[in-house]
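Data card: per-record layout.
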Amino acid sequence: MNPHFLSPYLFLVSLVLASSTPAATFSVVDLTNYHKIELPKGAVGPESVAFDCSGKGPYVGVSDGRILKWQGPLWGWTEQREICDGSTDNMTEPTCGRPLGLKFNPKTCEVYIADAYFGLLKIDRNGGHPQQLATSLHEVPFRFTNALDIDSETGIVYFTDTSTVYQRRLWPLSISTGDKTGRLLQYDPCTKCCNIIYLICNFNTKKVTVLLDNLAFANGVALSKDSSFLLVAETPTFKIFKLWLRGSKAGDVELFTQMKRPADNIKRTDNGEFWVAVNSLRQYQTSPEYWLTKDPVGVKFDEQGNVVEVLDGEGGSTL
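The structure for this 319-residue chain is written out next.
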C-alpha cells in the first residue's frame, strides 16, 4: 500500500530492455512500451492489480472502496455505483472501506480481499456481496489489513495487518512513532481438519494464527512457487523478510533483501520470481551503481534475493 500518491491511472507496463546495459547480472528496463488505462471519473489510488482465473481483468481496488474490473477499451470499467464513489476523504474510509490486497484463487475462482477496515473478505466466483472471513485475532481487531496471497492447494490465505494501533487513514503516525505492531497472519479455511496422530477431526475450522509479529508497517506479501516460503515487506526499514514454511528451515526468518527505497506490494511471476513495487519517494536518491538507475520504481528478484530486472521510473515524468 503506497499512501503517498493517489493516481487516476493504472499503468500496465510491457518491459523492454534498455539499449545499453553495463556489465551486470541484471538488466534495467524503461517505459518505452507501456499502456496507461484511465480510471473512471473520480476514481483514484489504484492498488493491487489482479486477474481472475480466466485471465480477465485487471481488477483493481480504488480509494473510495470500490473494486473495478477492466472490460477492455470498448466497454471500459465495470463498476458498482455506491454512495462513496469518488471519495478521497480519509475520514470516510472506515465507512467506505479501502481494498488494498486482491487475489483470485485459481482453483476456486473466488477472490480474496484484504480491506484496510473490513478485514479479510471473500467474493464467490459468481460475484455478489463480500463475505467477511476474519476481522480480529484473540479479541484484538485488525486495524490495517493490507496485502495477501493464497496457497491454491490448501486454500490457506497469508495476509498482513500493518498495525494493531493505527488505521490506514492515520498511517503517518505508524511511521513517525516507530510503531512495530504489524503482523503476518495466516487464515486456514479448512472445513474438515484432522490430526492424523490422534485421529481427531474438527469441522468448519476457520483459524487465524500469527506467523510473524513486531513488524514495522507490515506491507506486501507473496508466497513462493513451491509454497516453501513467504516474503513480507517492512516498508519503513526498506526490508523484505523471508519466512520458511516447509523443510528443515521451517519457522526460520531471514533477510531476503535490503531495499534502497520503501517496498510496497510483492507479486510472484509464473516462473517463481518476484516483482516488488517501490514507493517513489524520490527524495531517497539511489546511487546508479546500486541498481544502474537513480529512479527504481519496480525491482524483480529471483528466489535467492538476487536482482533480475529493474524498472526505471525516469524521474517521475510518466510514472
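Known properties of this structure: Residues 226 and 306 are 18 Å apart (CA to CA). DSSP finds three helices and 28 strands in the chain.

See the next section for split statistics.
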